[in-house]
Design brief:
This protein is an all-alpha fold. The chain contains three helices and no strands.
Length: 76
């Protein structure tokens, strides 16, 4: 959700204006930027990376993308 991002985050600058002009295209662009941010964060772990997901849908998304041996933390 673009509105939940840090107010100083410039990656989504102009999102509200684009959303008024073309909501579907703006949502697709925001989705791509947010996924790229997670992808970048997930590939930068040197010895590992812990991700806490308070949203079950996001947690399922990451579980489907990780290799079976990568899941070492307790799952609900």
């Amino acid at each position: 959700m673009p509105a939940a991002r840090d107010r100083y985050d410039k990656t989504l600058r102009g999102h509200k204006v684009r959303a008024k002009v073309d909501p579907e295209k703006a949502a697709a662009a925001a989705d791509l930027i947010i996924k790229n941010t997670y992808r970048t964060s997930m590939t930068r772990g040197i010895k590992g990376c812990y991700v806490y997901c308070s949203d079950e849908e996001t947690a399922r998304y990451f579980r489907t993308r990780l290799s079976p041996g990568a899941l070492v933390a307790a799952q609900p």
